[in-house]
Amino acid sequence: MGFSFANLRLAPLALVVLLVGATQPPTTVSIHGTHPKVGFTFVPAIATWNGYQPTAALAELLHKLHPDLVRIPIYWDSVAPSSGSLDFGEVDALLATVTASNAHHPAHPTQVILVAGVRNLAWPEVHLPTWVGTGTTLDLAQITASSSYVAYLEETFQHYATSPLLYAWQVENEPLDSTNDQLGDIALGGTTVAGELGLLKRIDPFHRAIVTTYNSASLGLDMQATSGLSWLYELLPGPKPAGHPKPALLLGDVLGLDVYVDTPSTPLADASVTERIGWKAVSLAYWADQALQEGKELWITEMQGSTWNGEAGFSPEDLMESAHQYSGTGASVVLLWGVEDWLIAPNWMEAGQAAFQTLRN
Question: In the beta sheet, which residues pair with residue 308?
């Protein structure tokens, strides 16, 4: 009798256990002694929502945290007032703020990671100028192939490629992932991302390019996604893998993982924040080793540093526990997300400063 999906539904439990065991995560992971560069992502809109003028907020964060790196978005809709012109004034002002801070702290200068792309940091994930017509459906493949979009990328890369502050580029944000229920499928796909990376390298062959994604709650799920039996795991009940760490690793010079342990998609009834932090630490060590085998690095591009949209569940103590557990995973860079909220919450700022020291030491 031939194999069928109906047969699979009736498969003995022993068979399912055997198949699941085929991709169990390692029982031990490497502990790395690397001291990562530590910094944060700065989203001007979040600073504004908290009542700050962006450059003032950034200046205060630089003064209080002394980061090695700051990740700054270059939104297409912010720099392109019309289809025929680009104005980098807002981004230049933020970089001037970093330069001024460095002048006061020459022994510990800060560099920047710049994010270019239509998929960019923070809500609504896709950042389009108002003059871009989308019709009834959002066709990102058509938009990213347009001459106006390519010009935005080209001029952005040219404008900042020689900046002494530049540490690395990020091309798009979570481009392989479709994470927006309102906009539909917003994944760009590997071919589009590879084309944009090629454009960047022709203009700036010297700085590394990060491709970001997220991963599953546990390493076991990540390994299911890369298993030859991945099709089978899709048919079985239970949690499913998330994100695209392996494809993202192969595309970029650096794999950037966005790491959250308390979100609407991670119900705490299933596992506590502390448990999830431990799971993430194991998976980060694994992906750091995978990156090393490819001659690349793993960066934590978003380490949860605040509550998700103000909802209770993630605490300052969880922030410090995350820093403790992630510090030895082999990530070469760790960027905190949510630091703008620390400006209006002294207890979070104190925890954040402690987390910075833990990650560095």
Answer: 311
Give me the pLDDT at residue 312, please.
83
CA 139, 209, 245, 256 torsion-angle sign: negative
- Nearest 10 degrees: CA dihedral of 222, 224, 228, 230? -110
Residues in a beta bridge with 113 = 71, 168
Angle at 42 between CA 360 and CA 40, to 5 degrees: 10
- In DSSP notation, 146-174 reads SHHHHHHHHHHHHHHTT-TTEEEEEESSS
Element (H, E) at 280: helix 273-293
- According to DSSP, the β-strands at 333-337 and 37-41 are parallel
Sign for the pseudo-dihedral over CA of 254, 255, 260, 265:
positive
CA–CA distance from 118 to each of 127, 136, 188, 205 (Å)?
5, 18, 10, 22
Say if residue 234's pLDDT is above 60: yes
Contacts (Cβ under 8 Å, ≥6 apart) of 331: 34, 36, 284, 288, 297, 298, 299, 300
- Span 50-108, pLDDT tens digits: 999 999 999 999 999 999 999 999 999 999 999 889 999 999 999 999 999 999 999 99
pLDDT at 179 over 80: no
Task: Give just the sign of the alpha carbon dihedral 274, 279, 285, 291.
Answer: negative
pLDDT digits 0-9 by tens, 115-168: 999 999 999 999 999 999 776 678 899 999 999 999 999 999 999 999 999 999
Helices (H) and strands (E) in the chain, counts: 15, 8
Contacting residues for 259 by C-beta, under 8 A, at least 6 apart: 214, 280, 284, 300, 302, 303, 304, 322, 326
The secondary element (H helix, E strand) that includes residue 256 is strand 254-259
